């Protein structure tokens, strides 16, 4: 294989007299440029490898080996990797929740007898579960027993139940923490709610 300098020496510019000769010379120059680019790339890669090895010997890190981003390969035609392809879709239907819902109270609703025809017969009840929540106060007035001992000169008070400290109960404190930290409710809105 010839070196780029040998290829350049063989190129005789004086012999270019016509279009065919010019084309041959241009083709030779393109080949020369391509060979030079390949050589430069090899030398750059070798130079970088030597620099990395030198840095490694000095205790530093070399240049990281970062791979180019490539689009993922499409899966084979028989690979059923998506959920929709793996299972047969079923029609959605509402499932019963009665066994999971705690019933707090029951109420019997009656039909106004005046709105019924004379031959209407009672056929039982149709049950309907309605879910709701009740937010109400639970203010407690504790009557703490109080004793005084003249011999010890000391007063004895019954303690508050566990969890009660100060003027606010554990339920109110827990609700304030949940609303503030978990629900991101601002302090002015919490104050408005509690008032």
Give your account of this protein's structure.
It is a single chain. The protein has 195 residues and is mostly helical. Helix content is 37%, strand content 4%. The chain has five helices and two strands, in the order H-H-H-E-E-H-H. A hairpin with a 4-residue loop joins strand 1 (146-149) and strand 2 (154-157). The radius of gyration is 45 Å and the shape is elongated.
Secondary structure layout:
Blueprint lengths: L3 H7 L8 H40 L24 H4 L59 E4 L4 E4 L12 H13 L4 H8 L1
Antiparallel strand pairs: 1-2
Q: What is the strand content? A: under 5%
> Rg, please?
45 Å
Strands in their spatial order, largest beta sheet: 1-2
Question: What's the tally of helices?
Answer: 5
Low-pLDDT segments, ≥5 res: none
Largest sheet: 2 strands, antiparallel
Principal-axes geometry comes out as elongated
Mean pLDDT: 83
Going by helix content, strand content and strand pairing, the class is: mainly alpha
Give the % helix: 25-40%
**How many distinct beta strands?**
2
Spell the H/E element sequence: HHHEEHH
Distance from N terminus to C terminus (CA atoms, Å) equals 94 Å
Overview features:
195 residues, single chain, elongated, 5 helices, 2 strands, mainly alpha
Provide a compact summary of the structure.
The chain is mainly alpha-helical. It has helices at 4-10, 19-58, 83-86, 170-182, 187-194; strands spanning 146-149, 154-157. A two-stranded antiparallel sheet has the order 1-2.
């Amino acid at each position: 294989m010839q070196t780029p300098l040998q290829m350049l020496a063989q190129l005789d510019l004086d012999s270019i007299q016509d279009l065919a000769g010019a084309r041959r010379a241009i083709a030779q120059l393109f080949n020369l440029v391509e060979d030079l680019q390949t050589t430069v790339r090899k030398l750059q890669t070798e130079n970088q490898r030597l620099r990395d090895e030198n840095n490694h010997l000095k205790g530093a890190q070399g240049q990281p080996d970062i791979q180019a981003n490539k689009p993922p390969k499409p899966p084979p035609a028989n690979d059923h990797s998506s959920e929709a392809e793996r299972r047969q879709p079923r029609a959605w239907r509402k499932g019963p929740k009665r066994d999971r819902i705690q019933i707090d109270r029951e109420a019997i609703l009656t039909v106004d007898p005046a709105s019924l025809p004379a031959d209407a017969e009672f056929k039982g009840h149709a049950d309907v579960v309605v879910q709701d929540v009740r937010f109400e106060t639970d203010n407690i007035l504790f009557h703490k027993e109080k004793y005084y001992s003249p011999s010890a000169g000391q007063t004895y008070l019954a303690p508050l139940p566990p969890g009660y400290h100060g003027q606010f109960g554990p339920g109110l404190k827990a609700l304030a923490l949940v609303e503030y930290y978990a629900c991101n409710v601002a302090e002015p809105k919490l104050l408005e709610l509690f008032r």
